[in-house]
Design brief:
The protein is mainly alpha-helical. The chain is about 40% helix and about 10% strand. The protein has 5 helices and 3 strands. This is C-factor.
């Protein structure tokens, strides 16, 4: 597992340099943030851009930087390579009624994912979205540790 700041392209490129010539058959883009302001009138431009940088640009930068590694794995005997983007039901094009920066940036991720999938199909690299469903997250509970994610789903 590799931890880095997807908002900082230099850290993404440095991480890719550390992994030079290492085949990667599974890349999971799971970075996420949740900024203040839920509505069009309460969300700042700065927070909106932060969420777009993390949710839409981050997966693009990381995948692009690690593309040589993914291609290396795709040409190996295993020949089963996946890029997974973590998404949310809040990314619905029909609107989610949720926080504007989060919903729109995750919707942008869907288009980034679709474009990547089309571009990388010829390299035998599958690019998919996963929606884990409603789970407890510290960001949603304002830092309080929940007893069980499953209870919340029920």
């Amino acid at each position: 597992m590799l931890t880095l700041d997807v908002q900082d392209e230099s850290t993404v490129l440095a991480a890719a340099k550390q992994l030079k010539d290492i085949p990667i058959d599974l890349l999971t883009n799971n970075a996420g943030i949740f900024t203040e302001g839920n509505t069009m009138t309460s969300t700042s431009k700065e927070n909106m851009m932060k969420e777009f940088e993390v949710h839409a640009m981050g997966p693009l930068l990381v995948t692009r930087a690690l593309l040589p590694n993914l291609r290396l794995a795709a040409t190996s005997k295993r020949n089963c390579v996946h890029v997974v983007q973590m998404s949310t039901i809040d990314a619905s094009i029909e609107g989610c009624g949720g926080p504007i920066a989060y919903c729109t940036s995750k919707t942008a991720l869907h288009m980034v994912n679709s474009t990547m999938a089309n571009e990388l199909e010829c390299d035998n690299i599958a690019v998919i979205l996963l929606d884990p469903g409603m789970i407890y997250r510290l960001v949603l509970t304002k830092g309080k540790q929940p007893k069980s994610s499953l209870k919340w789903q029920m």
